[in-house]
Amino acid sequence: MNKNGFSQELSSALIKRAKANDIKAFEDIYRTYSSAAYTLALRICRDSMLAQDVVQNAFIRIMKVIKQYRGEGSFAGWIRRIIVNETINAVRQKKKVQLVTTEEVGELESRDLFDDNWLNSCRDLEYLLAKLSDEQRAVLLLHELEGYNHREIGKLYEKSESFSKVTLCRAYKKLKEIAKRQEVEYALNR
Amino acid sequence: MHLTDEQLLSASQDNVSSELKLHLSLCETCQARARTHQSLQEKLATFDSLDMPSDRWAEIAATHQVESEESSVVEKKSNSKFWQISSFALAASLAAVLVSGIFLESKTELGEAINSPTLAELIEENNQLQKTLKNLNESSQLVLSASQPLNNKLASIDDELQRAYINGLSKTEKMTLWQQRIFTIRLMIDEQTKKTIKTPIFI
After folding, report:
1. Three-state SS sequence of A59-122
2. Of A34, A51, A130, B50, whose Cβ has the fewest other Cβ atoms within 10 Å?
3. Which domains does chain A have, with CATH numbers?
4. Is the minimum CB–CB distance between B51 and chain A shorter than 8 Å?
């Protein structure tokens, strides 16, 4: 089976050559992961130009700091973290991050988000995600797909774990609202 | 009492409490909710991978090369004291290399090796001049940007420089371009200085 995205692995010999500043090795790394990096950045920021700039800056940074990669964990995972950091920084520079107030922490007490599989009937997931705020979308993707925990996400945003928890709950809540509304509209138009 | 949504969302993480795990293993309602959450996660994971719309490799490679050369200037500066002391040793070892021809395969390569510090110095001089120009622009209360022809000239040299790095042109060719850049920035500085002097100061 052909691997793609960040599941592709590169040989340690190639990484060693890149560490020795071999430009061809760097190019191989870029060609292997640039599309996965772009997909990840775009999912978070929803801005194609910004995502391309993020990828460009991230790979310049990767080339600069590759000697710091000590082989602990996968190389793809290391690249992925740099892409996430660059994307979050780019989005934060573009917009001010909304602060989560203490009253909003009450949202964590909800128990109705997963009562039914509201996403089953969803016809356009991209559309739903586009309706989320930058922070909601980023936290949702990082926590649910990229395997980040709340502490790590909070750290990325220089905030507490609560910021991540509230933002994730809120992201799901909003997705559910829009998906339900979409379902009703679809039923009425049939 | 059933798990909150937040507890359910954290259930897959390592640092989950044993009470939470126990509840989840016993409560059918929460298990059903956890399954729903899992299927939502699976749905989210069905995204297709997208291709990068533009190939940015050329820009990345060029920027990396310029940055590498800049950092070699910094390194060279920090080592300058050492070289001042050991210049005789350097000359002696270079002479040894010349006679033996062990490390350098061709005359061209030798020429480039000797020229490489000069290229680094040219880049450093460019950076210094660029800073001077920036300071001049910032210190002025009025907007006194350089004339369009000079700006255009600088932009075209920058394009050529980028292409030179991408296409791997020789150091001599790169040096010529860096020298042209120095000359153009000097012209811009002169022009800015003259404008600043001519501009009357209103108090």
Report:
1. HHHHHHHHHHCCCCCCHHHHHHHHHHHHHHHHHHHHCCCCCCCHHHHHHHHCCCCCCCCCCCCC
2. A130
3. 5-94 (1.10.1740.10), 102-189 (1.20.140.160)
4. yes
